[in-house]
């Protein structure tokens, strides 16, 4: 392919993607609305894309930028002079490393566990799965915050880490970190605060005079914090920070191996080779925006959040899950209003709103992560008309017999043929077996919502597995002629 062919093909491929600018994609991406900063960050990513963070002595520029980012974050999280940090690829890797480091800090514990509220991010369940750590889940209270007494009661001699959220992703509220950290400290256990969402917003919210539950290193007992640069620091994707109160707490995170004929492997993260592009892009973004700039952006995002939350609360048929404490808003719908249809209607109006399926006795909800570039007035106008259209359409029907069948299926017993049938029945595959998302997702989400979580997982894994298979291309050129 010629360079022109490649550029044209890339542009064509990107046409089906959600937009990353404009403030209308309310999950996955975060938009500051600063085109000049975005362009500068892309230049930085390109300039350092070939650099390798594997060896900081070979690429000292990357180490300097990483240390600079950690130093900037220190003031946001009330970090002591001893605070250290590591740049990771994202919030999930930061959370994984927090669990791995806690596990490896306690080699005396043979069956390590972590204690988490049921609203904790799924990354901690992933960490438990990867690292052989039991995840002890504690139910949250009616306010959707972790229950400190229940957390304290769940800590035992196997516990290596306790986790709190600032805020929780699903509900947008901050856990009572002081009480949870105190309970962990009383048992000599590490306490991690997952501030991947709030770490670059809550400090500025406090400076703006808003009430913020204490969550930083100013809280005794907090030993580590994760905060994402590619969320509300508005950096290009692939950048998060895992911060530790002191170097001794970080040390078990490192992996070193010299027992082979090659170079001594020494890693601070789950990755070995790491492109320098995300590091440079994050550094350029943070330096371009600066502390005062982030204060303005936080104020914009928080004011938009206030307006959107108030607008949702005033809409007949919708109710806030909780009063938002950061920039996340979740809402449930009354029985005569289908929340999944509302999400579809918003998509038809150019807004991506994330559906959240039911959990236990919790109803399904719509979820938005609001950026500085989000226009609250335009959002609420679209939401109002979407609610009207969804109410007119009525709830998505799910056959009672189908729902009962889904509840009785054992995911472990399903083979490829059965999974293919389920994908077709759910609208994720056509009669010819071709996979893809339908134009309207409400019927798919309604079926998934009545399925037990384990079956949801099995069906969606099967869908992803089948999507991620290359389509053979026709053989052309010299290879086809045998030369």
From TrEMBL:
<protein>
    <submittedName>
        <fullName>Glutamate/tyrosine decarboxylase-like PLP-dependent enzyme</fullName>
    </submittedName>
</protein>
<dbReference type="GO" id="GO:0030170">
    <property type="term" value="F:pyridoxal phosphate binding"/>
</dbReference>
<dbReference type="InterPro" id="IPR050477">
    <property type="entry name" value="GrpII_AminoAcid_Decarb"/>
</dbReference>
<dbReference type="GO" id="GO:0019752">
    <property type="term" value="P:carboxylic acid metabolic process"/>
</dbReference>
<dbReference type="InterPro" id="IPR015421">
    <property type="entry name" value="PyrdxlP-dep_Trfase_major"/>
</dbReference>
<keyword id="KW-0456">Lyase</keyword>
<dbReference type="InterPro" id="IPR015422">
    <property type="entry name" value="PyrdxlP-dep_Trfase_small"/>
</dbReference>
<comment type="similarity">
    <text>Belongs to the group II decarboxylase family. Sphingosine-1-phosphate lyase subfamily.</text>
</comment>
<dbReference type="Pfam" id="PF00282">
    <property type="entry name" value="Pyridoxal_deC"/>
</dbReference>
<dbReference type="GO" id="GO:0004058">
    <property type="term" value="F:aromatic-L-amino-acid decarboxylase activity"/>
</dbReference>
<dbReference type="InterPro" id="IPR002129">
    <property type="entry name" value="PyrdxlP-dep_de-COase"/>
</dbReference>
<dbReference type="InterPro" id="IPR015424">
    <property type="entry name" value="PyrdxlP-dep_Trfase"/>
</dbReference>
<keyword id="KW-0663">Pyridoxal phosphate</keyword>
<feature type="modified residue" description="N6-(pyridoxal phosphate)lysine">
    <location>
        <position position="231"/>
    </location>
</feature>
């Amino acid at each position: 392919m010629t360079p022109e062919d490649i550029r044209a093909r890339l542009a064509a491929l990107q046409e089906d993607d959600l937009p990353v600018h404009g403030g209308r994609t309310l999950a996955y991406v975060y938009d500051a609305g600063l085109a000049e900063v975005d362009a500068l960050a892309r230049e930085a990513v390109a300039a350092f894309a070939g650099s390798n963070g594997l060896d900081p002595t070979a690429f000292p520029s990357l180490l300097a930028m990483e240390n600079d980012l950690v130093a900037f974050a220190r003031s946001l999280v009330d970090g002591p002079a001893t605070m250290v940090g590591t740049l990771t690829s994202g919030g999930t890797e930061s959370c994984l490393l927090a669990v791995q480091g806690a596990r490896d800090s306690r080699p005396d514990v043979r069956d390590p566990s972590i204690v988490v509220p049921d609203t904790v991010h799924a990354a901690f369940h992933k960490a438990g799965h990867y690292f052989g750590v039991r995840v002890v889940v504690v139910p949250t209270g009616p306010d959707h915050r972790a229950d400190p007494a229940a957390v304290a009661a769940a800590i035992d001699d196997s516990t290596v880490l306790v986790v709190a959220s600032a805020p929780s992703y699903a509900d947008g509220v901050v856990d009572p970190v002081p009480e949870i950290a105190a309970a962990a400290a009383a048992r000599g256990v590490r306490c991690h605060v997952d501030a991947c969402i709030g770490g670059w917003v809550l400090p500025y919210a406090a400076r703006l005079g808003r009430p913020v539950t204490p969550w930083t290193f100013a809280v005794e007992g907090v030993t580590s914090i994760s905060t994402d640069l590619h969320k509300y620091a508005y950096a290009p994707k692939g950048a998060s920070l895992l911060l530790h109160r002191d170097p001794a707490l970080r040390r078990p995170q490192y992996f070193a191996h010299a027992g082979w004929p090659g170079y001594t492997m020494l890693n601070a993260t789950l990755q070995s080779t790491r492109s320098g592009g995300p590091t440079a892009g994050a550094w350029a973004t943070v330096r371009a925006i600066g502390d005062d700039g982030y204060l303005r952006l936080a104020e914009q995002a928080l004011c938009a959040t206030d307006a959107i939350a108030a607008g949702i609360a005033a809409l007949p048929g919708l109710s806030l899950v909780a009063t938002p404490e950061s920039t996340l808003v979740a809402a449930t719908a009354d029985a005569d209003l289908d929340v999944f249809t509302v999400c579809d209607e918003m998509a038809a109006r150019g807004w991506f709103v994330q559906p959240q399926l039911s959990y236990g006795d919790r109803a399904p909800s719509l979820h938005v992560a609001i950026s500085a570039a989000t226009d609250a007035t335009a959002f609420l106008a679209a939401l109002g008309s979407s609610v009207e259209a969804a109410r007119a359409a009525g709830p998505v029907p799910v056959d009672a017999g189908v729902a009962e069948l889904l509840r009785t299926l054992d995911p472990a017993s399903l083979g490829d043929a059965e999974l293919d049938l389920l994908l077709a029945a759910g609208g994720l595959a056509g009669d010819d077996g071709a996979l893809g998302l339908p134009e309207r997702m409400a019927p798919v989400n309604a079926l998934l919502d009545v399925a037990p979580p384990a079956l949801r997982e099995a069906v969606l894994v099967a869908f992803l597995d089948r999507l991620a298979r290359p389509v053979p291309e026709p053989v052309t050129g010299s290879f086809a002629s045998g030369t």
